[in-house]
Structures are given as structure tokens and as C-alpha cells.
Automatic annotation (TrEMBL):
InterPro entries: Amidase_CS, Amidase_dom, AS_sf, FAAH2. Its EC number is 3.5.1.4. Pfam families: Amidase (PF01425). Signal peptide: none annotated. This is Amidase. GO terms for cellular component: endomembrane system. SUPFAM superfamilies: Amidase signature (AS) enzymes. One of its GO terms (molecular function) is amidase activity. It comes from Amycolatopsis rubida. Keywords: Hydrolase. Coiled coil: none annotated.
Length: 483
């Protein structure tokens, strides 16, 4: 395998041993992007001149005896992060010319760690949806099948990693936006515990990059190995220096166990709201078998598991509650009228979406209280288990579908169509209570498409799912480079 597909850990070892320079690695990455990205469109904003300058400085720093965590490692950044001197558009044409004056806090941390930023990766319009296509930069294709999506909203990052365009990337996740692209492209992504990683500067164009706590969304690492995920999380994690960082230092607990045989894992492959496709179910079973073969305690049912039906409803309401904040008054009033017409017996996710859009603050507090009850249930669950393994979405990567009305879109699961947004329920298992979740490869579909699973761990014990993913990588294989 060519050096563009080596892990950040392997590249760092080569740099330390004098077997490579950052300038060489950066030139190799740029050459590959220039050769291969025309077919993928993953790198929407290249920054090659500054990358070469940063690589030369990294080599000089290493010659002076410096050895920072990512010194000289080529990486990419999701387009929605502010990077001084490059446009931040979120794919919205009206912001095509917006250039932020300062870096997002995570871009600053990458630079402080010595990373060489190759450029920015593509996203959906406004970061909405599970695909990566917008009017400013066009459509990103899946490296395994160009007729399919790499996922979204961090789809440009996952495609870049799968194609060998840099060893690491950073993305964000509220509806599986890290995990789904990782699953679709055969790479790794980690949704950190809510509040673990500062998000300032991952903000819509023209908005002041204020430090604020998001209700569901997180920013996090993407990589081609689980160990690289952990390496990048260590760079990213920690409070914002403008807020909690004034008084708090980070001290993540170690992984609960170091051997597969010591883990206690619940396997989930069914959800009450949507079926699991055969290819994804096979991937979950593949991981379950690897755990059992290694001597882990594997269960498929537990009365301690918080109710998945209520969890999906709460997640849907919370997710959509902020989606209409800037709607015109007349449009919002129309939603209120439609919500009032819903039958009290309608417990579908479509109804939950509509009710979520018009939640009053009083109602939102009620939903939030029910979320806290779920968090209490998860604490009890994780007193008996170490992790949950479950799908990321019900299917592998699906064909491009750029219908702008996402509520009208459908997802095909083994020949039967379901509402497009219903597939988000698997992302919500971890997102609603704020739990950490690591997406990892788990084999291939019969059509040769990557299939992943997510490993969900206890709140603020991010090293536990990361370690479990690392150990499983050795059992079922890790990142497979597309041909």
C-alpha cells in the first residue's frame, strides 16, 4: 500500500526515524488529490501553497528537536470549520465569498499540534442531509462506487480519507454526520461525548464565532484506524479556553478494559421504527461473533436498555426543534396549524418531527426532562455493560438522490421504501443522551460496499469504545483501500 494510505501513527514513526519528511508526505498527498479527486470532488477548497509552507516549517521544527503529536502529518478539515483565509460557505451560494478572519478552535489545535492542512472537504447544503452536495461545490462521490453518496454531512472528509487524501480529518455530528460517512466509506469516525470537544468556530458563515454549548451536536475526529482516532481526539478534546477552560482541565478516564475477553457488550440489530438491511445485519453479527470468539460477554437483550421507541421520539423532537428557528412567521404558523391537526394517537416519527418543530420552551423542557431520565437509565445500563454495538444506518451507501425536499425522500431497505429521515434513529441512540460512539468498518455488502457498525460507550468514557474498536480491528480487519 502506498504511503498515502498509511496511518498517522505510521507516518509519525517514519518522520521520527528520518525515513520521510513532511514536505515529501505533503507533496505525495497533493499529487494524489490532483490525480484522483476529479472523479470524487472531496476536496472542495484546496490550500496547497500554505500546506507546502507548513510542511517545510514542520521539517525545520523537527530538525530543532520538536516532536508534537501531529507534527508534519497531512490532514483535511470539514468545510464548515472556519479557517482564516479560506471561504466558509456551508455550501450556501449567498456566502460564496465569506472569508473568516480567525481559525476555529479545532483548526487552531490542529495547527498547534503540528498538522499540515491540505484543504477543506465538501458538505451538504447547510450541512443538512446524509449526502454531500451543494450549489457552490457540487457533489462528492463515494470512492467505492461513484454513483453512490459518501454520506453527510462529513462526506467530503470520509471520501478524502478513503481515497488517501491525508491521514486524518475533522468533522461534526448531530444526525450521524461523522458516523454515517465513516460507515459508507469504510473508515473510522468518533462522535465524542457531548461537551467534551470545543466547537467554537464551527459556525454558519457571517455568524460571530461565539463559544456556546450545543444541545446535540458535537465535533470530532475521523481517521483510517481506531488508534489514529484516539490520537486525534487527544488533540481535539478539552474545554473552550474562553469558557470552561478558564477553570477546568481535561482528565479522560482510561478504557475500562485492555482485552476483548474482559468486555461486556450488548448487541442490537433491530429497531422498533425501522428494519435493518441484510448487509448491515451481517456486519453487526460479524462483530458479535468476533467478540464471542475472543471470550467477551455478549448479550442480545437486556431489561436495562432504555426504551428505543421513546428514545427515537425524543431525539427526533430535539433534533427538529431548532430547525425552524429562522423560518418566516407565516411559515412557522403553518407548521403550528399542521401540528395542531395531528391525532393524539399519532406516534409516528413524521408526527414527532412536526411536533418538534413547534415545541414551546415549556414543552422543550418536558422533553429534556425525559432525556435526563434516559441518561439516568444509561448510567444504570453501563454499570452492567461496557458498550453497545449496533448499526449506524440500516443500509450501506445508497445511490445519489438530490431531491431538495428531504422529507419527501425515501430510503430503500432490501426492496422496501421507508421515510428517509427514519434511518436517523440509529444515530439518535447515542446522540440523544450525549454518549460517545465510534464508527468502525465491519466488512462488505454482497455488492462490495463497505459496512460499518457503531460502538457506543459510557458518557465521558470515550476511550472505552475507542479501545474496543481498536481491538476489534485486529479481529475483523480495518480500513480497506478502494481499488
Amino acid at each position: 500500500m502506498e504511503r498515502n494510505f498509511h496511518s498517522a501513527e505510521e507516518l509519525t514513526a517514519a518522520l521520527r526515524a528520518g525515513e520521510a519528511t513532511s514536505a515529501e508526505l505533503t507533496d505525495e498527498a497533493i499529487a494524489r488529490i490532483e490525480r484522483e479527486d476529479k472523479a470524487l470532488n472531496a476536496i472542495c477548497v484546496p490550500d496547497f501553497d500554505r500546506a507546502r509552507t507548513a510542511a517545510q516549517e514542520a521539517d525545520r521544527a523537527r530538525a530543532r528537536g520538536e516532536d508534537r503529536p501531529l507534527l508534519g502529518i497531512p490532514v483535511t478539515v470539514k468545510e464548515c470549520y472556519n479557517l482564516a483565509g479560506l471561504p466558509t460557505t456551508w455550501g450556501m451560494p449567498q456566502h460564496r465569498d465569506f472569508i473568516p478572519a480567525e481559525d476555529a478552535v479545532q483548526v487552531s489545535r490542529l495547527k498547534s499540534a503540528g498538522a499540515v492542512i491540505l484543504g477543506k472537504t465538501n458538505v451538504p447544503l447547510g450541512l443538512q442531509g446524509l449526502q454531500s452536495s451543494n450549489p457552490v461545490y457540487g457533489t462528492t462521490n463515494n470512492p467505492w462506487d461513484h454513483d453512490r453518496t459518501p454520506g453527510g454531512s462529513s462526506g467530503g472528509s470520509s471520501a478524502a480519507l478513503a481515497a488517501g487524501f491525508g491521514a486524518l480529518s475533522i468533522g461534526s455530528d448531530i444526525g450521524g454526520s461523522l458516523r454515517t460517512p465513516a460507515h459508507f466509506c469504510g473508515v473510522y469516525g468518533h462522535k465524542p461525548s457531548l461537551g467534551l470537544v470545543a466547537n467554537r468556530g464551527m459556525v454558519p458563515p457571517n455568524e460571530l464565532p461565539l463559544p456556546h454549548e450545543l444541545d446535540l451536536a458535537v465535533v470530532g475526529p475521523m481517521a483510517r484506524t481506531a488508534r489514529d482516532l484516539a490520537l486525534l481526539l487527544d488533540v481535539m478534546a478539552g474545554p473552550d479556553p474562553l469558557t470552561s477552560g478558564v477553570a477546568h482541565d481535561l482528565a479522560l478516564p482510561p478504557a475500562r478494559h485492555e482485552q476483548l475477553s474482559e468486555f461486556r457488550v450488548l448487541i442490537l440489530d433491530d429497531h422498533p421504527f425501522i428494519p435493518t438491511g441484510a448487509a448491515v445485519r451481517a456486519g453487526v453479527h460479524r462483530v458479535a461473533d468476533a467478540l464471542a470468539d475472543a471470550g467477551a460477554r455478549v448479550e442480545r437483550h437486556s431489561p436495562l436498555l432504555p426504551d428505543l421507541t421513546e428514545a427515537a421520539t425524543l431525539y427526533t423532537q430535539l433534533l427538529f426543534s431548532g430547525s425552524v428557528a429562522r423560518f418566516p412567521v407565516d411559515a412557522y404558523e403553518q407548521l403550528q396549524t399542521r401540528a395542531a391537526e395531528l391525532s393524539a394517537d399519532d406516534e409516528s416519527l413524521d408526527a414527532a418531527r412536526l411536533r418538534g418543530m413547534v415545541l414551546t420552551h415549556r414543552d422543550w423542557l418536558g422533553v429534556h426532562h425525559r432525556r435526563e431520565l434516559h441518561r439516568h437509565g444509561w448510567r444504570q445500563f453501563f454499570a452492567e455493560f461496557d458498550a453497545v454495538v449496533c448499526p449506524v444506518t440500516p443500509t450501506p451507501a445508497f445511490p445519489h438522490d438530490h431531491n431538495p425536499d428531504l422529507l419527501a425522500c425515501r430510503i430503500d431497505i432490501d426492496g422496501v421504501e421507508y421515510p428517509f429521515f427514519d434511518q436517523l434513529v440509529w444515530a439518535g441512540v447515542a446522540t440523544m443522551p450525549g454518549l460517545p460512539a465510534t464508527a468502525m468498518p465491519a466488512g462488505f455488502s454482497p455488492e462490495g460496499l463497505p459496512v460499518g457498525v457503531q460502538v457506543i460507550g459510557p458518557m465521558f468514557e470515550d476511550r472505552t469504545p475507542l479501545r474496543l474498536a481498536e481491538l476489534l480491528e485486529g479481529r475483523i480487519g480495518g480500513f480497506p483501500a478502494p481499488k
